Amino acid sequence: MEIMKGFYLAFLFFGVSSLHVFAAHVFPDTQHSDEVVKSVTFRSPAFTLGPGEVQNTYYQGVPFVKGHVALKGFDAEVVDENGSSVPLNEVYLHHWIALNYIGSNSTDYVPQGSKSFNGSIVGNDGVCPHYALSQLYGLGSETRKTSTYLPGHYGIEVGKYENELWLLNVHAIDTRGTIDPFGCLECRCDLYNVTVREDGKPLRDGYQGGLFCCYDGVRCQLKDGFVGENRTYYLKYTVHYKEWDDSILPLKIYILDSTFDGSTCKVFIHLLVLNRTDSVLVP
Fold first, then answer.
1. pTM of the model
2. Where does the secretion signal sit in this chain (predicted)?
3. Is the dihedral of CA 145, 73, 132, 24 positive or negative?
4. Cα torsion 252, 108, 62, 139: sign
C-alpha cells in the first residue's frame, strides 16, 4: 500500500467564497477560546522493538472519535508501557499517518499489522491514485513540537459515512546500540544490509537509502557486543474535535510529493528564469 512515500508537502485549502488560503502546519493554539472543542486520547496496539529494529506497520480499525465531527487537531507521539514519552535518540519516529476508510462492516475483524487492506479509503482531495498520499494527518519526529490545531471555525469533516473506520501507519526505528544512529534513521541501505525491497524486487541502481531499505522487520547494524532488551511501545494520539454544525468551514487537503514516481502523480513546478517561464517535471 503506497499510502506514504518519500517526503511531501501538505496543504490545507480553505474553501471560503473566493478567498483561497494555503497553509502548512503552522497553527499555534494560543487561546483555546472555543469551549465546545473536545479532546480524547487513544493508544495504538502495542509494538515491540529490539535494538536496531524497524517496525512499519498498518493498524486497521483503530479506536477513534465516533459520529459526524470536525477535526480541529491531531497530536501523536511514541510512549512506553507507562505512558511516558520515549526519547527520539532511543526510538526515532520516522513517520506516522492517519486516514479514514469505509469498512464492509464496522464489526469486521482485521488482523493488526496485516499488509492486506479491507475497505475503501475516503482520504483527502489530492490527485494521487491507488491510495497513495491519501492521509488526513501525518508527521514524523517533529510531531511533539508541531501544532496541527485549526483556528476559528475551520475543521476537517469526518464521520459522515456509515461504517467509517480509521487506519494508522507507524514507522519507528530503534536506534539503541547502533553504530551510526543518524545513518539508521536516514535508512541507509548499507547499514541495514538490504539489497532488495520488501516485495523482493531489487533496488534500483544508485539507490543508497530511503523507505525501500528500512521496511518492517529489518535491523540496523549494531555495535560489536551490544546487547539490549526488547521494549514495548505505543503510538499515543490525541484527537481534538467538535460536533459538526453549519457554522464550521470545511477544509480540503492536498498532498504533493516531489519524489513520487507514479505516472499519474507527478508534480509540475513552474519556474521563472531570465524572464522565461518553463514547466519543469520533478522526477
1. 0.79
2. 1-18
3. negative
4. negative
